Structure formats: C-alpha cells, structure tokens
Amino acid sequence: LVPGWNGRKEPMSLSRRPFAFPMYARLSRGFRVIKGGRRISKSTNLSARQLIYTSLLQRVSTYIAPHQEHVRTYATKLREMERLFRYNVKATGFRNNLEFKEYKNGSRIELYRVLTSASAMRGKFADELLYDEYQLFDIRLEAEIRQLQQTSKNPVTIYSGTSTTIDSPLEARYQQSSGGVWMMRSPGGKFINCADPELILKMIRPKGL
After folding, report:
1. Which of 22, 83, 102, 140 is the most exposed place for a label (fewest CB within 10 A)?
2. Alpha carbon distances (Å) from 141 to 99, 153, 163, 178
3. Residue 69, CB half-sphere, CA atoms under 13 Å: how many?
C-alpha cells in the first residue's frame, strides 16, 4: 500500500500517476528527454517503465547512472516495483540480482555505473539505453556506449535528470528535442508547473497547492 492523493493508503496503481504518463509512451526508435524537478518519482516511474516493456516485448534495457549511489537507489526501487508488479513471474534458471535481471521471454534489465570510463560496457548489447542523472554525465563517453545498440532493430535512448545549469548535457539534449512540456493541474484546478518561486509561495495553503 502507498499514500494516495487523499493521503490514505491504497494499492499502488500507475493510473493514479497521470503526471508520469509521458514516461510510459512507447518509442519505436529515437530518443526522449525527461527533464523534471527533484522528488517527482522519476525512479519509480522509470523502473515501472522498464518492467512493463521487458514483460511485453523481448528487450534488453540498460540503466546507466554516473554514481554508484544512483545505481544502488534505482536498484532498490526496481526491486520494490518488481514485488508490486502484478505480471511479475518468477522462473527458475534465470538470474534476478539487484543489477542484472533475466526474464523468460528473453528480456534483460542491466544496471551500470559509468563516470570516467565506459570500458565495462564493451562487448554488450542493448535495445534501450536509459540514462539517469544525465546532467552529471560525461557526454564524451556516449559514443562508446551507443555501440551497444549497433545491431538493435529498434534502438531507443531515454535521457532523464534534473537540469542544474543551462549548459548541462541534459539541457543540451532537451534543446535538441521537440521541447514538449507536460503540465499537470493540482487537485484544486491550478497549474503547479511554475518557475516563479514567489508565486509558488503565494499558492501554498494549509491543505497544499
């Protein structure tokens, strides 16, 4: 059980997370940039996305983050989501570690830390590359990592993170994208995606926004 919109504990359902729907939209190939603030459940929703697509399709999805603490946090969240996932099927003879998971349909989920070298990625294969905390990533390593998708029929890349400066790798990818913005209304009917801190403070009430 997880806290719902009304604060009560209820079964977790992705349908109650409309703000994350763009993260689940399927890409046949190409890239998507997910640029959001802190604590908007990016890890929860990205791990759910990985579980959904590796269950529905035969895919090798590789998660990449620049620091081990990011990988560890995501691995823990992925394990929690596995326990909540209604279509999770435990099969004998397949590895199911924190950072490496195999599934009966041939799919795999792999987690790696890449900070100063991509040597650990050599000789591997991936249909999907999922970069987390991409604003901290060394973009010079990306060409080597992209070789993992060289023989994939449907290569997909997801860039996710929080822009901390206007010259970060994440911001550069966002400028190359379509630049779409997903706006959500609060339960009171107001838009809460606002860059004006003074206006945000005025909007806060005892019951929230």
Report:
1. 83
2. 21, 22, 19, 24
3. 0
CB proximity list for 182: less than 8 A, separation 6 or greater: 19, 21, 22
Q: What is the DSSP letter of 117?
A: -
What tokens does 140 get?
């010079």
Phi-psi region of 134 (alpha: psi -120 to 50; beta: other; left: phi over 0): alpha
Say how far apart CA 176 and CA 159 lie, in whole Å.
12
How many C-alpha atoms does 160 have within 13 Å on its Cβ side?
24
126-173 pLDDT tens trace: 999 999 999 999 999 999 999 999 999 999 999 999 888 888 999 999
Give the C-alpha separation, 14 to 45, whole Å. 8
CA–CA dist 129, 59 (Å, integer): 11
